[in-house]
Every structure is written in C-alpha cells, then in structure tokens.
Fold these 2 entries.
Entry 1:
Amino acid sequence: MIETAEIEKVFANGNEWHHALKKVNIKIQENEFVAITGKSGSGKSTLLNLLCGIDKPFKGKISINGTEITNLSKRKLAKWRNSDIGIVFQSFHLLPSLTLLENVMLPMEFSPIKRNKKHRALELLRSVGLAEKVHMFPDYVSGGEKQRAAIARSLANDPPILFADEPTGNLDTENANHIMELFFRLIHEGKTIVMVTHDLELSKKTDRIIQMKDGMVIEDQGPLASIQGAGGS
Ligand code: ADP
Ligand code: MG
C-alpha cells in the first residue's frame, strides 16, 4: 500500500549538501499501525513529508495506494493530499479564525464528493469526544482537544491512510493516551497509520517500529516485514 524505492533527500547546508535521507526502502501494508522512531535529526519528519507529498525526493520513487506520487504535478499532489490521505501535526495546524466545526468542514470544501459537510463534521467531532465544543475556536480549547479536532479534520474526506508527525509531542501522558486510543480505534476500523514519534513507550504499542538513524532505516522488525524478508537494514 505504501512503498518507497531508494528515496533520497538532500538539503543545501551552506555550500555543502546534507543527506537527510539515504536510500530508504520501506513497505507498509494496509491496516498496519507503524511507528517511525529515531533521535532528533535522524530524518523522521523528512521521510513523513515525502510520504505525504508535502516535499519531493531528490531521487527514488514513492507509491501510495497505487499512485506514484513522485510523478504528480503540484496541483495534482495537492488534490491527492486532500482526498487520499490524512495528516496530523505536532502543533495541530488548526486555523485559529475558524471554529472546530469549520476547521473539520474545510477539507470537504475542496473535495469533489458531495456530502452533507456539516453533518459529517459534527459526527466526526462527536466521535473524538468534542460534541460539546464544536462552536469553540481552537485558542479556547486544550491541547488534547485541539489534537482530537485535528484528527477529526484529517478524517474529513475518509482517507484510508493517516500520517502523523509527533502527534502527542505537545501533550501530557493522559492526553497522549487518548490520542493513541483514537488511533487504535481507527486501526480497528481498517485505516493504516504511520506515526512519527520519539516516544519509545508509545512506539511499543504499535504493530511495527521502523527505526531511523542518520537518514537511514537501521531497524524494521515488524511482523509483516519479517514474513516478507524485508526487515533488517
Ligand atoms: P527528525 O524529524 O528525525 O528530527 P528531520 O527529518 O527534521 O529529523 O531532519 C533530518 C535532517 O535534515 C536534520 O539534520 C535537519 O537539520 C535536516 N533538515 C530537515 N529539513 C531541512 C530543511 N528544510 N533545510 C535544511 N535542512 C533540513
Ligand atoms: Mg521531526
């Protein structure tokens, strides 16, 4: 479902090149809950941004659900991101001038699929425990509530895959556990989740840990990976 082939990413660093990703090959099956771990600077966010099409690789190919996203134009990529995947960030990225309800409705405004947007947004917010707060603005709810609203928004167009970059990084343990429970429920419903985290305890709760160091995958010992012989470095 998610497959990368020898992806590389370089950033200009003064007059030198910094290799943020070095020939990364990963394969993720449908309905897996995968944690990408590693120290700060190991390339986790860079990898996630490539998988989400937020950024483009220098070399290599990325196929997601049969779409070769590395070949898409900027415009097509933006459309694909809105309809085919959900993205959750550490700092929530909610629009402060919109209520939680309006934030969740927003991705549906850009979707060709006709839906009762308000009804669906209310249903999503209810499902993450925010039924009472739908008309509040992000600045007036807690961090945990902001992240739950952001997750509801990421599900607006019912994407099969969710990408999350340190989704619990700004939350206390209790709120982090709430988010994890939400993710488990989504996995149960058939979604695929790829979550970047440097929290070892959280990563151990997922199905599979992909560990990165210096832009490389140094460990990938998921059950599916070992069955396919794709594990190891
Ligand atoms: P992580 O998410 O694991 O902390 P990142 O993927 O953010 O790591 O960064 C990996 C490496 O790439 C780091 O050395 C970082 O400084 C560098 N890097 C990331 N983004 C940029 C950028 N936009 N410009 C230059 N260097 C970057
Ligand atoms: Mg990061």
Note: The chain has one domain: 2-230.
Entry 2:
Amino acid sequence: MRSYSLIAPAKINLYLEIIGDRSDGYHELAMILQSIGLADEIDVRSISSENIHVHCNHPQVPTDKTNLAYRAAELMVRQFPEAFAKYGGVEISIKKQIPVAAGLAGGSTNAAAVLVGIDLLWKLGLTQSELEELGSTLGSDVPFCVAGGTAIATGRGEQLSPLPSLDNICIVLAKYRSLEVSTAWAYKTYRQQFGDSYIRDSDNLEARANAVHSGAIVKAILDKDSGEIAQKLHNDLERVVLPVYPQVFQLREIFANQEGVLGTMMSGSGPTVFALFESEQQAEKIKLQVREAIVDEDLELFVTRTITHGIQVASSV
Ligand code: ATP
C-alpha cells in the first residue's frame, strides 16, 4: 500500500487585527500569517479496511473524530466516495513537534497535510486553490497552512493574498507546556470587552480589511526590512490574554528587555510568545538567557526561523 510522509509547518501571526462582526457570526479579521520551520511529521497511508485511523505520539492530542486530521480525512471520504471505494481507508500517524493549543495552528497544519496526502494517495490532482477551499470548511487557518509562506489573511482568515516570502528571520518561541489558552475564550472575551468599537456594516468591514494591504507592516515585508517588521508586530488578542495570564505577560516583558531582540509578540490566541532576531547566534543566546531568567521546567523554548512553504512531501513509498 502506498504512503506519503509530509512536513506540516506551524505558523505565527505577525499581525492580528479584529475588525468587527460578520453577518455569519464570525469575527472579521486582518492577519499576516508566517510559516516557520517548527513542524510536525504526518504519515498518510492507504489501508485495506474502510476506516480512518489516527495515531499521535503526543498524549494531549485526541486520536478520535475530534482530531482535525481525522476530520480532514473524513471530508475527503465524503467529497470523493469513488476514490475512497477504489483505494480504501487511511491510516494517519502524527509525530508532534508543534506545541498543542499554542496559537501555532498545530491542528490546522495537520489537517492541511492530510488533505495534501490523500490528494496524492488517491491521485486526485487537486489544485492548490481546491485544497484551500476544502480546508476552509475545516478551520480558518487550514487554507493558509496548505501553501504557507507569508500571506495576508482576511475574512475569517481564509481569504489569502500571498506576500513575497520572508526567508530566514530567526525566531525564539516560548510556551509553558501545561498552559493552554482556548481560542474560543479569547475571541469571546475580546467581543465582551471591545465589541462596542466593532465595525458591523459590510462595506466598512471590507474597506478596513483591505487597508491592511497598504499598512506599515506590509510595506516592511515588501522591503524585507526585518527590523521594521519587528517594530510593527501587532496582536489585538494580547489585550485580553496578557491581563489574565501573567506568565505570558512576563515572557513578553523578558523578551522585550533583552538586547538583540528585534521585536516580540504573542502568536494567535497564545499562549506562545515569539521574538525575532537577525541571526541564529543571537536567538540561541537569548534562548539561554530566558532559560536562566525563568527557572521552570514547564517552559519550552524553541529556536526556529521563517520559511517560504507550507505542506511539503518528505518521502513516499
Ligand atoms: P490555532 O493557532 O489554529 O488557534 P492552536 O495552535 O492554538 O490552533 P492546536 O494545537 O490546533 O491549537 O490545538 C487546539 C485543540 O485542538 C487542542 O486542545 C487539541 O486537543 C485539539 N486537536 C485536534 N486535532 C489536533 C491535532 N491534529 N493537533 C493538535 N491538536 C489537535
């Protein structure tokens, strides 16, 4: 039976602005998403039974129907019943490197990898935009995870405009292993606290979302000016997460006060905090300094970098 091994990179948010309420009940967002080198490995193989099986080496990740990778396989079965009948079920193995519930789109990138893997297994020949369209029914971050790189994401996060790739900006990620922030809680709390200032009519929503295309951080990305990008990092959700999670606030403060840090921000709904650096040497140095400043085995630190791709095939047998 054929199998594919796929690399599924995490993402960070260089920018996250909550613009308002959409008529479908979701938030209208303007984000800039960036793929990073930290990645899970996903193996997808055809099996003779008509089932979907998920295995994962991480105890916090469910292996039942609530796993986004499972849901991606289920979607492919529903969409392509003839291919399913021809090729049989699918076994999915997830080797987790990306911290879970971290604001790094771990589940979404796993789902994107399964869409790409099954497309290959079943020889469907889907285009990138067809894969993204399927992904958007699973979650707002899934379409971005398919192609990855650097992109503006508007709407619920599923409307993508690619930006020139930002290669090789070095990153330190910091996340407390046992600390999770619910994405649903973060957005609900933001609505409770700041909903009064939301834009609600569709013309103004669209105009504001489009404004991000000519914003200062996009200019800095077009100029490939990492110092300026780092100065223009922004995340509205910090307004609700930092006051409630002092550990996240402390990480932000520690990074902000280290020499050599270009800029620091929480990713997505957190609780991961990242900092940007010119060189890997500086990133490794600051990682050590943060480790010394916070003596807590629960704190995980990773050195990684910006990359220019989303899901990639590592090997096939
Ligand atoms: P996002 O940045 O897209 O909001 P996240 O990085 O905050 O996502 P995930 O790592 O995707 O969060 O995990 C969120 C929840 O989803 C976890 O509590 C976990 O139980 C569940 N989950 C389902 N499928 C997966 C998966 N394949 N990998 C990780 N978590 C998963």
Note: The longest helix spans residues 106-121.
